[in-house]
Amino acid sequence: MQKTALYDLHKAMNGKMLDFSGWLMPINYGSQIKEHKAVRKHHGMFDVSHMTIIDLHGRQCEDFLRYLLANDVAKLVANQALYSCMLNENAGVIDDLIAYFFSPDFYRLVLNAGTREKDFAWIQQQAINYKVEVIERQDLSMIAVQGPQASAAVMPFLPQSLRTVAKELKTFHSVMGEDCLVARTGYTGEDGFEIILPHKQALRLWQQLADAGVSPCGLGARDTLRLEAGMNLYGLDMDETVTPLESGLTWTVAWQPDDRAFIGRQALMAKKQSRYAKRYGLLFEGKGVLRHGQKVYDNNDNFLGMISSGSFSPSLGQSIAFARLSDYDQGSCQVEMRGKLQPVSIVKLPFITKRD
Amino acid sequence: MSDLPADYKYTKTHEWVRVEEDGTITIGITDHAQGLLGDLVYVRLPEVGQIIDTQEECVVLESVKTAEEVYSPISGEVVAINEVLEEEPELINQGAFEQGWIYKVQPSNDADMDELLSVEDYQAMIEQEDD
Q: How many domains does chain B have?
């Protein structure tokens, strides 16, 4: 089992450690609901060092990523980042990731933890015909500080040289210091930063933030926050058997320009011409929790599809879920929960929008 | 973890059992069990007057993370339920051994008590689990 550099601090802070894709990670530090609410109300911090960080160097980085990814890095200005799926030839999702653009010969990819080996192998294999060097960065930790007051909380602890720029960063923009990347990205639907830095500095930052009153939050809260914010989780909401179109990720596919031949484009075009299942948001107002794998039916008991991920929404006090359903235009459906069909509403995503 | 009450009995499936002065038996889940479940969001209670058998599902606990059934360690008639749990399921997280009690039964089979674990045996069991 792998541990992040912050493992001992998690234990000392009463973190309940569980196996997460081969990593011992904190699921909560007492109460996942309290941690969730802290992030929505002021701020919280997450150790996400288990995620895979890959740097790409070389003069053909841009050409390579325009081939590798379904979204188009050519849209980016320097220090901007992009969310994208990485597809196979059948347009199945190998992984979803964030690509950070620094200069034409330097990009960074942040990918999921559970897909590390297949991602690295796939990227190396695809890079054979490009002048690109693929380097995994196991020397780096990653801390996410999220919430409406995250910026003010984290600012005093960033390297002095980055503060002025960091403060003014727009969403999905970043600033790279000597050995610290500060990006205005996250997985909670709130304002905040993801900070990538060497392990030693990460230990210090985590401790400083804790001393300043920022709540440590586990991966449990991270899951309910991302669900409320309408964000997918790889392995549950999409995988290699489905395309971005069936996963609520059509907006991440850059169809233009027409002549950009990214991996999976042909299969994706064919899918687009067909009738395909789509992602829907579900809200259950009764007592019980919508969960992965539950079956969804229309109001005449015809099977529509399955819930891909579901949980209790601490912000709404009700249960919410994503489901992949055959094309459906009704405002309600039924979900089989503990042997009984229960009436469930279909609602627009995201469930929660940020208060500005 | 909070200390285990010494005068309670326990089960392998992490319920606790307390014999009251009037001979009724109160049942709940242990602090260890609530820790495994995480924040509770719904509790489905049995009904007062319901006759339950041992190993019969009589309570459903739903946490943010998972759903878990409680199988009654004691057979008999349900004489009281902790109705507050319907509005405040987090009482189980906050005080599994006291305010988080779930239901009380009038026992119908004294032999049910023989199946339970002593506090020492239960302590040893969860210590082994944690390793």
A: 1
